[in-house]
């Protein structure tokens, strides 16, 4: 894969699956959690999207890319968390907080490879849903320099002649 976005996605997928082993499913976000009925994923899941990139020119065809990785952390419908719910059920219901924390610790400051800067968390939001599924959207900022369109510079050696006069 030559695309930095493809490299980033594949590295994220491997890293998440190997470091946060309680996550069952890691894939590209193609709208799986937006379907009616049971989403076609295994819970808990992480869906990855490369999002909101902007580019700045450094000169000679080189650009710096700044953007975000959007992770959707999804959970199946869970038990109630009301004040009168027995603690053992309440703790199972809010376990997603611990899983989100483990995912964050695995990703914050992590680099996909030598081409990318460290991933830095920039936001975490909860989707408002009526179907009982819990979805957290966590965004990480990331940068890289793109040399793929760098112009080749051809330099000719300078000729220098010195004439000494008496």
Describe the structure.
The radius of gyration is 24 Å and the shape is elongated. The N and C termini lie far apart (65 Å). It has a five-stranded mixed β-sheet. The protein has one domain: STM4215-like (2-Layer Sandwich). The chain has three helices and five strands. A hairpin with a 7-residue loop joins strand 4 and strand 5 (134-146). The chain is of the alpha+beta class and 166 residues long. The mean pLDDT is 92.
Give descriptors for this structure:
166 residues, alpha+beta, STM4215-like, 32% strand
Number of domains: 1
Question: What's the helical proportion of residues?
Answer: 10-25%
Amino- and carboxy-terminal Cα gap: 65 Å
Q: Into which percentage range does the β-strand content fall?
A: 25-35%
- Mean pLDDT, all residues: 92
Note the run of SSEs as H and E.
HEEEHHEE
CATH-assigned homologous superfamily: Phage tail protein-like
Strand-helix topology:
Elements lengths: L3 H16 L5 E4 L16 E15 L2 E14 L11 H7 L1 H13 L12 E7 L7 E13 L20
Parallel strand pairs: 1-2
Antiparallel strand pairs: 2-3, 3-5, 4-5
Summarize the model shown:
This protein has three helices and five strands. With about 170 residues, it is of the alpha+beta class.
């Amino acid at each position: 894969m030559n695309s930095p976005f493809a490299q980033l996605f594949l590295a994220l997928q491997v890293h998440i699956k190997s470091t946060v082993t309680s996550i069952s499913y890691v894939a590209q976000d193609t709208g799986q959690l937006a379907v009616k009925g049971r989403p076609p994923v295994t819970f808990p899941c992480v869906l990855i999207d490369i999002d909101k990139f902007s580019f700045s020119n450094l000169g000679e065809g080189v650009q710096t890319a700044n953007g975000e990785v959007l992770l959707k952390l999804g959970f199946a419908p869970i038990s109630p968390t009301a004040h009168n719910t027995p603690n053992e059920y309440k703790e199972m219901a809010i376990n997603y907080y611990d899983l989100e924390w483990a995912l964050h610790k695995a990703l914050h400051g992590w680099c996909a490879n030598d081409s990318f800067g460290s991933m830095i968390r920039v936001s975490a939001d909860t989707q408002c849903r009526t179907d009982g599924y819990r979805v957290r959207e966590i965004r990480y900022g990331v940068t890289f320099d793109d040399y793929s369109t760098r112009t080749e510079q051809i330099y000719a050696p300078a000729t220098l002649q010195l004439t000494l006069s008496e």
